[in-house]
Amino acid sequence: MALFLAETTGISVLFALPRFREGEFGGKITVNASDFPKVNDPPVANNQGKFWMVTTDKGVLALYKVCTHLGCIYAWDNLADRFACPCHGSQFQEDGAYIAGPAPRSLDKFAQEAYNQAGKLVANSDDGSPMPLPSDAVIVKVNTGKKILGKSHF
Amino acid sequence: MAIIGKRLVKQVKTTGVKATIAQRADDAFTRFTSGLTWGDVRGVLRGDPAPRPNPRVKPHTEGFWFHIRPTFYHEATTSLYPTFRLGFLSALFFAIEIITGVYLMIFYTPSPERAYSSMIDIITNVPFGMFMRDLHRLGAEVMVIVVTLHMVRTFTTGSYKKPRQFTWFTGVVLLMVTLGLSFSGYLLPWDQLAFWAVTIGTSMADAAPVLGPTVNLLLRGAPDIGAGGLLRFYLLHVVLLPLIGIIFVAVHYYKVVRWGLSLPPEMEPVGEDNARKVPPEKRVNFLPDIATNEIMYIAIAVAILAVSCATWYHAPLETHSNPLVTPNHTVAPWYFYWLQGLLKNTHIIPILPTDISTVVDRFFANVLGLTPKILWGIIIGPLVFVLLMVVPYIDPNPSRRYGQRKIMLTLGALFGALILYLSLAGIPTGVPVTGFGYVGGAPAAEVAQEFMPDEGDGALMNIPFDQMVVGEYQVSPDAGVANAPDLNAVLKEIYYDMQRRMTSADPNGRKLSQDAVAKVQIAQIQPDLKELTISISYTDDQTGTPQLYTKFKFLHKNADH
Fold first, then answer.
1. Where are the beta strands (DSSP E) in B317-394?
2. Inter-chain Cβ pairs, chain A and chain B, closer than 8 A
3. In this model, does residue B209 exceed pLDDT 80?
4. Which domains, and CATH codes, for chain A?
5. Which residue in the set A17, A65, A85 is minimally distant from B217, CB to CB?
6. What's the CA angle centered on A148, arms A144 and A150, to 5 degrees?
7. Reported confidence tier of residue B375, pLDDT bands at 50, 70, 90
8. Which of B426, B456, B471 is the C-terminal boundary of a domain?
9. pLDDT at B265 over 60
């Protein structure tokens, strides 16, 4: 009886689980280096890839737009110079570092690659850390299939 | 056929045509009422005393609908106290929801492309569509209140005690079904409110260790809420949860028939249950007294609901859902405020000083894998329901008398107070004195949010359209705009709100600067369309630089926001 129930549950779950095609979610989003804001300028939203484009003095960042707490879309609060989530009040620095609120970790980032006009890889950030750009003419590919979880503050 | 014909002919021959028709009609009537002849029903309607033997108990043994109701009540349970008829009203609202829900289903399509336009269609084009939606929505809210009060009543009178433990258990399941129905119904309009409330709800499941992500995928049908999620919530709302609800209502009702309605606590010897041992002179038969009484309750409840929906109540509909923007001050439905409040807890043990708390949090997260999000959202939240379910099994006190249940009643009151406190923490303004749960940005932005929120109603938008005189106004206690008393009143309100924010800091310790000035601009964009802008210039409290915050909204003359 227990076995039968377990089997039925298992099959129902497998049946109801959604199926994805390879690459259906996430992909490499191409942006121009000039699309990134200047240092100290407010972040720029990329809605296609659902990330914020941020420039810090260490380089450019692509922050996943979803709050690490419960999935709301946090917004840039220009007046307070930080990201703030409207749902439960988590706050993050421009580089995604956790400031306050119930979020368990800093903001999630995407891996990035930069290519020059000739198509040669000139910079690379596998762990989502700030990537210095050699010039404004390069093309940045943000890999939204590769999400790097933010650092837990616990 | 031939046999029936022969019998009929024989009957006509012996008793005559008229008597035969009367006899046959009465037979059909008796079958329809499961045992009451027309004469019996007439007696019921006239208020005749029941003959002996009482034919009015027959439907209870012969038919389905009366079979699930007790044959008689103890007269002590028939007045308002002790039941307040809350259980009956819960079932009534469940029925109202099913009827209005089926009507809405006809005009609704569960797909992201069509859902919102279905809603617009229902509230503008469909005959009585808006009325039906209002009934459905208000009925759902009232149902949550009635079900909760029913539980509070059952707890207070100790009616969950032996032999009714399992009745209480099914009641908790029905509470969860009620909340689940409300929550799954929330997503269907596919507006901003819907989208974000459900995103938060399903993200909570995601936080659970091991199984969380799978449960989240099952609910959403994809990593993000989209077509799959909408369809799944729709099926939950119209098939699975109502089905569970109907099954458990049936069990719940059966248990009420089996054990009877519990007597007022003071009428029974401690530890005994005499609900089924009612002396004949104390019995009130279901037919006709209770039944007519319930018909009156139905009439009053439906009338109040219908008049409310026809006059002051309209179900809210926000702007179309936008996966890229979470509106400011997003909140859960009010009956989940307590859960939202719980989720705002940033620490495992909230009352410790910050330094110690951080150490405690680190210990739990790294040694036990327990983060505040998992604790408050996944463990404590559902634990509330588990706790409710086991109350009758762990309460050792056999007495139902109020005076002998001081501990349990105190615990119940504390639980209620805690839920209220957490509910306060759930709303963006947080708890008044402690400031726990406050979600807010710069003071200037909060002023604008207060009078012109991202979603929903604000005082500025509620000024009558003809009083929105085109022009630019500085907020002041006496703006003196001619022929626009409502506009003047709102300008005054904003002025005093800003004064308040200048003198007292918000829970984040921020104040509006003393030099802050706010202006409201009203511009005519099209013949029936005006643009409202609120702009606040102030000095930022953190950087010391002058800032300007502006926010605008368009309002149509016929808008019913």
1. none
2. 104
3. no
4. 26-148 (2.102.10.10)
5. A17
6. 130
7. confident
8. B426
9. yes
Over residues A73-87, the mean pLDDT reads 83
Comparison of pLDDT for B212 and B169, the residue scoring more: B169
Q: Which backbone phi and psi does B518 adopt, to 5 degrees? A: -120, 145
Give the β-pairing of B72-74 and A121-125.
unpaired
Give the distance, in angstroms, between the CA of residue B529 and the centroid of all CA atoms in the same chain: 35
Both B265 and B193 in a single domain?
yes
| Residue of B328, B346, B347, B455 to mutate when probing chain A, most A C-beta within 10 A | B346
Of B199, B345, B364, the CB nearest to A72: B199
DSSP one-letter code for B191 = B
Residue B551 sits at the chain A interface (C-beta within 8 Å) = no
Q: What CA–CA distance (Å, rounded) separates A106 from B266?
A: 58
Q: What is the pLDDT of residue B560?
A: 65
List pLDDT tens digits, range B38-89: 999 898 888 888 888 888 888 888 888 888 899 889 999 888 888 899 999 9
User: Is the CA virtual torsion B289, B293, B296, B302 positive or negative?
Assistant: negative
**B263, B379: one domain:** no
Using DSSP, state whether B288 is helix, strand or coil. Answer: helix
**And the tokens for B274?**
């005499």
What is the C-alpha R_g of chain B? 30
Q: Does B221 touch chain A (CB under 8 A)?
A: yes
Domain that holds residue B536: 443-556
Whether residues B421 and B448 share a domain: the answer is no
Alpha helices in B160-290 (DSSP H): 165-187, 192-206, 212-220, 227-235, 241-259
CA distance A100 to B509: 14
Q: Which residues contact B310 (CB under 8 A, 6 or more apart)?
A: B131
**Cβ neighbours around A112 below 10 Å, total:** 28
Domain shared by B268 and B354, yes or no: no
Inter-helix orientation angle B443-451/B485-503, to 10°: 150
Domain count for chain B, please give it.
4
Give the one of B200, B323, B547 whose C-beta lies nearest to A87's C-beta: B200
User: Which of B439, B433, B459 is CA-nearest to residue B532?
Assistant: B459
Percent of chain B with pLDDT over 70: 98
Closest to A90 measured CA to CA, from B348, B353, B336, B345: B345
Q: How far apart are CA B524 and CA B327, in angstroms?
A: 26
pLDDT for position B156: 94
Chain B (519-548) residues lying within 8 Å, Cβ to Cβ, of chain A = 540, 542-543, 547
Same domain, B281 and B410: no
